[in-house]
Design a protein that fits this description.
The protein is mostly beta strands and about 500 residues long. The chain contains 1 helix and 23 strands.
Length: about 500
């Protein structure tokens, strides 16, 4: 499979650059376009973690690439950290995209990103100033980030419409559910009516040029529209000879694959969406290949189903989101070979049954404002963090969410939506979020709780929108945390958040 994908992509590139440019009646004109957005977000909340904010809340975050728990450290009820305390801050992001278009056949794209994760933030003098644009006084920060740099061109020598994209580019496969990231790679998209087929190869890590310690992702996706329904599927192989993705001596390797199927569309007046994903693979101790007992086997699945009923200016619907959970008696928190399991006899981690997403995924669309991070604030809050150097049970791994929602278009300028959901814990012999103990072992609870979210969108101008809303989670036993100072289990006050987002798009 890997050789086929790579050889196919190389063949396309040879055709593109080795052949004589085909004749044109009129030379294309170079055209430049710019687009982007600027947003300003406010957050006011209690007992809601902040994604990527290790120091702002008074404590460090927990492991990013977790397969379940523990919660981010500053949420723990010890050391006078952020547990049961109100928090408030402002953040800011801008993106600027430049496209150089040469007719319909070719384009080049640069996209830059600028971030302030906290207005009034302070970066250490010697630190990388990425995400620190909100410095007071001398606001000249090195916060410019290159997000994308790629070229796209058509392939007129192939009998079906084909477009090649090469460079640092986005990789999105069902981003609301599965994979969304940026990185260096090559994608070929072919249109064979009624189907679209995409082949992709991305280089996640080039470690030592002379050693087989790099990481490569290969993917194929196909979909077709049949009347009012789009159906599709994909296969992704992630061969990581260094795990987690990091420079230096690789301690472990990982060979993982995912297969997924999806459907989007309408049946009569009813909106339907469905996704199913299955993951399987193995992590190994690279330094001791003979230590088969340290191998960690992965096998998990996730599914999302949504049914929406539009009626005049109303929309009513139901969603069910399920992600299989890990077993704390068989799994460590990070699934790195050789580590002890999170609970139980102290055996070595051997299995991950949780639904996981690939390493490097920046996060998928959350399904609740508080627990998963969604919507108004770009997913910048929530208990689930993005998969960083390793695979992670992010967004809904270890959860079962059943949600009722209703929306109303009050006017062309104002829309409102309310959601109510029950969230259940799927982790075995432990909890997906909480880390309460019983008899010296992780306690196994099922009730995460009920969450209610309310989101409003006001279109001030054609290109200027203002969103405001909030939510509250009525926390169940599965949210209890261990207080290591008092050696007791503490129940948090019900988490809540109030947030706004002002966005100018251009």
């Amino acid at each position: 499979m890997k050789k086929f994908v790579v050889l196919s992509l190389i063949s396309f590139l040879v055709l593109a650059f080795g052949a004589v440019v085909y004749g044109q009646e009129k030379a294309p004109v170079l055209e430049f376009k710019a687009s982007g957005f600027i947003d300003v977000i406010s957050e006011y909340m209690m007992n809601v973690p902040q994604a990527g904010s290790a120091t702002s809340a008074g404590g460090a975050t927990g492991p990013v690439n977790t397969v379940f728990g523990p919660p981010v450290a500053y949420m723990l009820p010890a050391n006078n950290q952020a547990f049961d305390k109100k928090m408030a801050y402002m953040e800011n992001r801008g993106r600027l995209k430049f496209d150089a278009l040469m007719g319909k056949e070719m384009s080049g794209t640069f996209q830059f990103e600028f971030d302030s994760t906290r207005w009034g933030e302070r970066a250490p003098a010697a630190a990388d100033q990425r995400n620190y644009a909100g410095h007071w006084g001398v606001a000249d920060r090195g916060a410019l980030e290159l997000k994308h740099m790629y070229l796209s061109f058509g392939m007129p020598w192939i009998p079906v419409p084909t477009t090649i994209t090469a460079g640092i580019s986005p990789l999105a496969i069902r981003p609301g559910v599965f994979l969304l990231t940026d990185g260096p790679g090559v994608t070929a998209a072919m249109k064979i009516d009624p189907a679209t087929i995409k082949l992709a190869w991305f280089k996640a890590l080039e470690n030592r040029d002379w050693a087989a310690d790099d990481a490569d992702l290969y993917a194929i996706e196909a979909n077709a529209k049949i009347q009012t329904i789009t159906v599709g599927g994909y296969y992704v192989l992630f061969n990581m000879n260094s795990y987690p993705v990091a420079d230096g001596e690789p301690g472990a390797s990982s060979n993982m694959w995912w297969v997924g199927a999806y459907m989007d569309g309408k049946v009569g007046p009813v909106n339907l969406n469905f996704d199913f994903i299955y993951d399987k693979g193995k992590n190994q101790d690279r330094r001791n290949l003979a230590a088969k007992a340290a191998d960690i086997k992965f096998s998990g699945w996730g599914a999302v189903a949504n049914v929406g009923f539009p009626w005049e200016k109303f929309l009513f619907g139901f969603s069910s989101i399920y992600g299989s959970g890990a077993d704390a008696n068989k799994t460590s928190t990070t699934a790195i070979p050789g580590q002890a399991v999170a609970s139980g006899s102290g055996a070595i981690s051997s299995k991950v049954g949780a639904y996981i997403i690939p390493a490097g995924t920046e996060g998928t669309t959350g399904y609740s404002l508080i627990l998963c991070g969604a919507g108004i604030n770009r997913g910048n809050t929530g208990y689930f963090q993005a998969a960083s150097g390793g695979h992670a049970a992010a967004t809904f791994g270890g959860l079962w969410i059943n949600k009722l929602y209703g929306a109303l278009e009050v006017s062309p300028q104002f829309k409102t939506r309310i959601e109510a959901m029950y969230i259940r814990d799927n982790t075995k012999n432990g909890n997906t979020i909480g880390n309460a103990l019983e008899g010296g072992l992780l306690r196994d609870d099922k009730d995460i709780g009920w969450e209610i979210d309310w989101v409003n969108t006001l279109q001030l101008y054609k290109n200027l929108s203002f969103q405001f809303g909030g939510g509250m989670l009525f926390a169940g036993d599965a949210m209890d945390f261990r207080n290591t100072t008092t050696n007791t289990n503490d129940s948090p006050k019900n988490p809540w958040v109030i947030t706004t987002n002002l966005t100018y798009s251009f």
